[in-house]
Write a structure and sequence with these properties.
The protein has about 375 residues and is of the alpha/beta class. The protein has ten helices and 16 strands. The chain folds into two domains: about 5-180 and about 295-380, Zn peptidases (Aminopeptidase, 3-Layer(aba) Sandwich), CATH 3.40.630; about 180-290, 2-Layer Sandwich (Alpha-Beta Plaits). Strand 3, helix 3 and strand 4 form a beta-alpha-beta unit. Bound molecules: zinc ion (ZN) (2 copies). One of its GO terms (molecular function) is hydrolase activity.
């Protein structure tokens, strides 16, 4: 596989800026998917799937000989956050921005597609442009698509850029790599009454006060501990903004986070138990949202990535602890693939993910392209050899 020419790299960076200007949030990535399909068609993919689990797109590049399927995944979605920057290519969509770097992840995979004009010798490469990562719904939706059996990989790789680490550093972490997390919406309903006679009603107020203090107490340990858990209160609402009514309804939102899926199951039970204890006399409805399973990186897949980074002379770091933030990439491991998420440094003084002034560093594109092409070369060989 030939290295990217400077014209090809310029094209990818220009495309990244165009994607950056027109971010689409989870589940609404129709235009982004169109652009990706146009690029993949130009590059002559052997097979294309569209509309996977929503707006997902996958492209196959196949070798002549039998061999494993290696899937490389990136994400299509931006965020419902207003971008604050002076960039010439800043978001033109009010209240939406590519502030997690998925625009950069996408063009990295298009860079791999560019180099795959030289096909692998055996097996096949699937490039997956996954929808709805930010809500935790997209990976599972792709896996639930009836066409997934045509794609199902033996190995899956992806990367996320990591602000705060040196640009281009390859972070590796076998075992738990990203936390499990989920949103817990607690709806409490009692009975309204005149503010002059609160005893005639049932207010959710006392239960809410107890839970606002009590649920965050379920947090324990640090990210270095297997038992790490974190419960963060994110929203509270009680009754209406009046003075005449003792309230009937209340709502709390709490985000639960843990290093392992097992710990998450226990944390959910503890949280439910607290709600039960404090919500006596109220009717309670619990809804779960944004469910992310933990990313658990496969040992063999991680070691393949380590070898590839080593062959390129890229600087590697064995990460001592997992990332606190969640990633729905864990679903591909749950589905049976040997999966590894790689953590590529985005620069030490770079704004953090989801900050309003975050922007993906273009200098990371060739680093990522080289790394994933080396993984493909090591696993599947190259037609030209
Ligand atoms: Zn994000
Ligand atoms: Zn992201």
């Amino acid at each position: 596989m030939q290295a990217l020419s400077s014209e090809q790299l310029d094209h990818l960076v220009a495309l990244r800026h165009a994607l950056h200007q027109s971010p689409e949030v989870s589940g609404e990535e129709a235009q982004t998917a169109e652009r990706i399909v146009a690029e993949l068609t130009k590059l002559g993919a052997d097979r294309l799937w569209r509309g996977l689990g929503g707006h997902g797109v996958a492209a196959e590049f196949s070798g002549r000989e039998e061999g494993p399927t290696v899937l490389l995944r990136c994400e299509l979605d931006g965020l419902p956050i207003r971008e604050i920057s002076d960039l010439p290519y800043k978001s033109t969509i009010p209240g939406k921005g590519h502030l997690c770097g998925h625009d950069g992840h996408m063009v990295s995979m298009l860079g791999v597609a560019t180099r795959l004009t030289t096909r692998p010798q055996k097996g096949r490469v699937i490039l997956l442009f996954q929808p709805a990562e930010e809500t935790g719904a997209g990976a599972q939706a792709v896996i639930d698509d009836p066409r997934w059996p045509e794609i199902r990989p033996d190995f899956s790789f992806a990367y996320h850029n990591v602000p705060g680490r040196p640009l281009g550093e390859v972070g590796l972490r076998k075992g738990p790599g990203n936390c499990a997390s989920r949103g817990m919406q607690i709806l409490l309903e009692g009975k309204s009454s005149h503010a002059a006679a609160p005893e005639d009603g049932v207010s959710p107020g006392p239960a809410m006060a107890a839970l606002m203090a009590g649920l965050p107490e379920l947090s324990c340990g640090t990210i270095g501990d297997e038992a790490f858990s974190l419960a963060t209160l994110t929203h509270a609402h009680l009754g209406e903004p009046t003075f005449g009514i003792a309230p009937a309804d209340g709502e709390l939102r709490v985000t639960l986070r843990s290093m392992t899926n097992e710990r998450m199951d226990a944390l959910m039970q503890e949280a439910l138990h607290r709600v039960e204890k404090h919500a006596l006399g109220l009717s309670v409805d619990i809804l779960w949202h944004d469910v992310f399973r933990a990313v658990v990186n496969d040992v063999e897949a991680t070691s393949i990535a380590r070898t590839a980074a080593g062959a390129l002379g890229q600087r590697c770091r064995e990460m001592p602890t997992p990332m606190r933030w969640s990633e729905d990439f864990g679903r591909f491991g749950d589905d049976g693939a040997k999966a590894a998420l790689l953590y590529l440094g985005a620069g030490e003084n770079h704004p953090q993910l989801h900050n309003p002034d975050y922007d993906f560093p273009d200098a990371l594109v060739p680093v990522a392209v080289d790394l994933f092409c080396q993984i493909v070369q090591d696993m599947l060989g190259s037609e030209a050899q």
